[in-house]
Amino acid sequence: MRLLHTSDWHLGRSFHRVSMLDAQAAFLDHLVATVREREVDAVLVAGDVYDRAVPPLAAVALFDDALHRLADAGVPTVMISGNHDSARRLGVGAGLIDRAGIHLRTDPAGCGTPVLLADEHGPVACYGLPYLEPSLVRAEFGTEKAAHESVLAAAMERIRADLATREEGTRSVVLAHAFVMGGEESDSERDITVGGVCAVPAGVFRGVDYVALGHLHGCQTITERIRYSGSPLAYSFSETDHRKTMWLVDLDASGAVTAERIECPVPRPLARLRGSIEELLESPELDRHEESFVEATLTDAVRPADPMARLTRRFPHVLSLVFEPDRAPSDASASYAQRLRGRSDQQIAEDFVAHVRGGNGPDDGERTVLRTAFEDVRVDAGVREVAG
Predict the structure, then answer these.
(1) Residues 252 and 284 in one domain
(2) How many domains does the chain have?
């Protein structure tokens, strides 16, 4: 059986205030084309279909269109809700949609009831484990601890119990939205530590032929049978080095897994650039990044004038600007009182300016401004003293 494993679409999400709807639509076009061209038997979507519980209407329309196209392709699709989704909203009409071959699994109570698929080698039981928030599902699974490992382990026991009742040779697939130990995080995932320790051991999924994971945005292999597809698009600059793909997974008659990465369209590459503003504006080595989404980290000792406007002239899609000036090391052994001893207010202020500028003190005009400010304060203090 050939499965296409994807997750973390985050429909409706923007990238540093840039709408990603067109890029998300292009990805869904690519997904449907892949289903047809590679003769996929079933599509697995492992959670975070939307970016938030109440998605914008444009994202809902995009999702609706994708469901119709997948149903028209005649290929079963199994989806679970993730921690960004509203399970109740995503699951509306699930019973009716099942008839079209779109299987939404958003209710934790139903995790032990599989979607039954079949090929020439026999049945495949596909179980959907929606995101399980421990504090909300602890009672359902009767666990003593409100922890991710506890509730996932209990849910997997239900799955294994159901699988034991199936005919011999039934292969098994589990979709889950969780943080599995060994996975590598990025900055764009929402933390799921609420309700208990978030990471769960891979051993929780023992006895299953393939586990299609969602939540982490980097495509990665935990074991040959346990994989994250990652998000199809980058949603933070921490994903600059990610290769965005889907997994094309083949299950043979014995349940053995072979997997191939299917590239996703890249709407615009990402670049993290670092250096002084002059280096970033003049280096010919950076020509290849001029059409990228750019995060620029400036190392100038003194904050340059109009940095964003100047950078935008070369990099029209610069989205993030960070200041990390290169600074000379300071004497950490001296106490604050020792560093101030014997220095006038003017000298202390000038030292402070030099400190925040990495050793570059104020120019003559700035010294005059500081001196005038201190004189005005002294005059004002004298007036108050006389009046008192």
Answers:
(1) no
(2) 3
Task: Assess whether 250 and 286 both reside in one domain.
Answer: no
- Whether 180 and 89 share a structural domain: yes
255 domain-assigned? yes
Taking the model in full, what pTM does it have? 0.83
Residues 45 and 84 in one domain: yes
Same domain for 354 and 284: no
Residues 298 and 353 in one domain: no
| Together in a domain, 91 and 116 | yes
Print the domain residue range for 311.
Answer: 270-323
From first to last of its 388 residues, what are the pLDDT tens digits of the chain?
A: 999 999 999 999 999 999 999 999 999 999 999 999 999 999 999 999 999 999 999 999 999 999 999 999 999 999 999 999 998 899 888 888 888 899 999 999 999 999 999 999 999 999 999 999 999 999 999 998 888 999 999 999 999 999 999 999 999 999 999 999 888 777 776 665 433 447 899 999 999 999 999 999 999 999 999 999 999 999 999 999 999 999 999 999 999 999 999 999 999 999 999 999 999 999 999 999 999 999 999 999 888 999 999 999 999 999 999 999 886 555 555 555 666 676 788 878 877 877 666 567 788 888 888 888 878 777 676 656 556 5
On whether both 31 and 140 belong to a single domain, the answer is: yes
CA dist 58 → 15, 25, 55, 119 (Å): 16, 11, 8, 36
Q: Is the Cβ–Cβ distance between 4 and 33 less than 8 Å?
A: no
